[in-house]
Amino acid sequence: MISVGLIGCGEVAESGHLPTILQSDRFQLAAICDVDPARAKLFSDRAGGVPQYSDWRELLAREHSLDAVVLALPPEISPDVVVEVLRLNLAVLDEKPIAVSVAEGRRLLQAVEEHRGVYQIGFVLRYGDWVEYIRQLAPSLGLPLQINVEVYDERYNPDDALHLARIQSFIRNSSAMTHEGSHVIDYVSLWNHSPWRSVSAVAQQTSPSFSGPNVWNSRIEFDDQSTLDVKIGWLLPELPPSTITVNGPEGRLDFNCVTGVGHLEVGGGEQAFALPPLAPHWERQYRTFADAIDRGSADLATVSDGVRALEVTAACELSATSGLAVTPGSLAAALGLTGNVQRPARHTPRSTGPERIVEAR
Ligand SMILES: NC(=O)c1ccc[n+]([C@@H]2O[C@H](COP(=O)([O-])OP(=O)(O)OC[C@H]3O[C@@H](n4cnc5c(N)ncnc54)[C@H](O)[C@@H]3O)[C@@H](O)[C@H]2O)c1
Question: Boundaries of each Gfo/Idh/MocA-like oxidoreductase N-terminal domain copy (predicted)?
């Protein structure tokens, strides 16, 4: 069994990480930590009384049996913890986004390389059947691709003060584009491996009471002439269905992420298809993490994938504030970074979901 510590006992840890670890036959929860002692106690109780800490440094100093650490922390907090965990030669599963700035993301990349650490990002949506379905179909649609992704989440509910405070904090310390959009940049990189070359984005704040923009329209252009239009809508009173369309010269598909129903036109034929709707795949993510620990390196949802997503969403943030299109060069100049910020998507030839979905349906 892989002995794991869980740091951060918030919403995503409660809905995803904790139940998955407790049900896993590969992982055993050794200790938990949250700065809020009530959250730490709740988790400790649910886990049968495992040791609880309010300081992650103390957890790392005292828990000598750990093989791995799961970080379900806000991205303005997590990088320092990652660096220390890697220094201790422990494997890390780190929630997305990996940081709030490209410079911090690069610091993580350097730490992973320096310690040859096992570092996997919680890009839990990339394991969806529909991601694999589109990945297998994309080559038959031809190039360039026009990809449209609309994600509506985190509905505005003034009666849920805790939810509102959590989302306001994400928007204040980072952005909806970086938090939600990092998933999109990640799974789209599995369909199109071309490097990005330009980003234009418009951000809108639909209420003065919000701590920043909650609606984003971003266009990402790639070297192969493909485009990705991402619309993110948070804190809206009603949520339209999230949808994905992929158009190419040889065909097109659309997918309703809520119903799981899609439509495909390719090679002169057309067909409807149905897949499980968009949802996090916790078990697949943890199986991938366990395999990475066994192997001694992560080869899915890697630090490079995380830095790439961060660069694109940072470019969106810069474009929205400057009103200008942003290129890798202008992003590096604006952020005062030396060297190339461009990190090409890695080709990921194998999936962790069902094999050969296209043929199977
Ligand atoms: N993978 C996904 O699908 C998914 C879903 C939701 C959220 N997330 C991401 O996970 C991260 C956390 O999100 P959340 O919704 O759980 O947020 P949250 O605010 O509910 O939880 C964060 C927790 O971290 C704790 N914390 C803060 N600083 C700490 C510190 N120094 N030491 C120990 N604990 C500390 C807080 O007290 C809180 O309990 C965010 O980056 C978010 O984008 C990912």
Answer: 2-123
CB-ligand 1 contact for 122 (6 Å cutoff): yes
Q: Which residues contact 200 (CB under 8 A, 6 or more apart)?
A: 218, 219, 319, 325, 326
Residues 292 and 181 in one domain: no
Q: How far does residue 264's CA lie from ligand 1's centre (Å)?
A: 37
147 lies in the same domain as 40: no
- 214 CB-side CA count, 13 A: 21
In this structure, are 92 and 136 located in the same domain? no
27 and 90 in a single domain? The answer is yes
Task: Tell me: do 157 and 65 sit in the same domain.
Answer: no
Distance 75 CA to ligand 1 centre (A): 8
> Which residues, 6 or more positions from 343, have their beta carbon under 8 angstroms from its beta carbon?
195, 304, 307, 308, 311
CB 176 within 8 A of CB 232: yes
Q: Using one digit for the tens of pLDDT, what is the confidence trace for 213-238?
A: 999 999 999 999 999 999 999 999 99
Identify whether 223 is part of a domain: yes
Distances (CA, A) of 92 to 49, 71, 118, 321: 23, 7, 6, 33
Evaluate whether 28 touches 1 at the Cβ level (below 8 Å).
yes
180 CA to centre of ligand 1 in angstroms: 13
Q: What is the DSSP string of 167-217?
A: HHHHHHHS-HHHHHHHHHHHHHTTT--PPEEEEEEEEE-S-TTSSS--EEE
* CA angle at 167 for the pair 323 and 233, rounded to the nearest 5°: 50
Q: How many domains does the chain have?
A: 2
Residue 321 sits in which domain range?
125-279+311-360
- Answer whether 77 contacts ligand 1 (Cβ < 6 A): yes
Crossing angle for the helix pair 176-188 and 303-322, nearest 10 degrees?
130
Shared-domain flag, residues 212 and 294: no
Ligand 1 pocket, residue 66 CB under 6 Å? no
d(CA 91, CA 288): 12
